[in-house]
C-alpha cells in the first residue's frame, strides 16, 4: 500500500460572515468549532476544499 501524505487542518477563525459554500466546506472537512483539528489524507478533493477555505484554517503536515 502506498504512503499517503496527511495534513492536520485546524479551524483558526470563525466562519460567521462566510458564504454558505465556505461553511458547507468546513462542515465537510469535519470542522465545527474554532481550535478543533482533523487529520485528512491529501486527495485532489481535499486539496480543493482546503484551497477554498485557506483563509479560515491552518494547515500543517501530520
For the structure shown, list the relevant keywords.
single chain; 62 residues; alpha+beta; Ribosomal Protein L30, Chain: A; 3-stranded antiparallel β-sheet; 2 helices; 3 strands; 29% helix; 26% strand; globular
Named at the architecture level, the CATH assignment is 2-Layer Sandwich
Low-pLDDT residue intervals, each spanning 5 or more residues: none
Task: Provide the spatial order of strands within the biggest beta sheet.
Answer: 2-1-3
For the termini, the CA-CA separation is 18 Å
Care to count the β-strands? 3
Describe this structure in words.
With 62 residues, this protein is of the alpha+beta class. It has one domain: Ribosomal protein L30/L7 (Ribosomal Protein L30, Chain: A, 2-Layer Sandwich). Helices cover 29% and strands 26% of the residues. The protein has two helices and three strands. The chain has helices at residues 20-28, 44-52; strands at 6-11, 37-41, 57-61. The protein has a three-stranded antiparallel beta sheet, with no helix packed on it. The protein is globular and about 40 Å long. 15% of the residues are buried. The mean pLDDT is 95.
Summarize this structure briefly:
It is built from two helices and three strands. It has helices spanning 20-28, 44-52; strands at residues 6-11, 37-41, 57-61.
Amino acid at each position: 500500500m502506498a504512503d499517503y501524505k496527511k495534513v492536520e487542518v485546524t479551524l483558526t477563525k470563525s466562519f460567521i460572515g462566510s458564504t454558505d459554500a465556505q461553511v458547507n466546506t468546513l462542515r465537510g472537512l469535519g470542522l465545527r468549532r474554532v481550535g478543533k483539528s482533523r487529520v485528512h489524507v491529501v486527495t485532489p478533493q481535499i486539496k480543493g476544499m482546503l484551497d477554498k477555505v485557506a483563509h479560515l484554517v491552518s494547515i500543517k503536515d501530520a
